[in-house]
Amino acid sequence: MQSTRVLTCVLQREGEGFVALCPQLDIASQGDSIEQARLNLVEAVELFFECADNAEITARLSDETYVGQIEVRVA
Q1: Whole-model pTM over 0.70
Q2: Is the pLDDT of residue 39 over 90?
Q3: Are 23 and 15 in contact (CB under 8 A)?
C-alpha cells in the first residue's frame, strides 16, 4: 500500500540552473528550470524512501522544519 507525505522544497537559482532542497531529509537535486529541479528532487526523495531502511529514514527525517527570513546588518 502506497501513501504520500508532504515535504518542504526550497528552490534557489544557482548559475544557469536551479537547486532544489528537501531540508527534512537533507536531499538535494538540480535542474535547468525550477520545474525540472523540483521534479528531480521528487525522484531523488522517492528513491531514498525506496532504498533506505527504516532506521535511516527515522534518523534523517525531521518533523519540524521552519522556513523563514532573517535580517542582518551588512558592512
Answers
A1: yes
A2: yes
A3: no
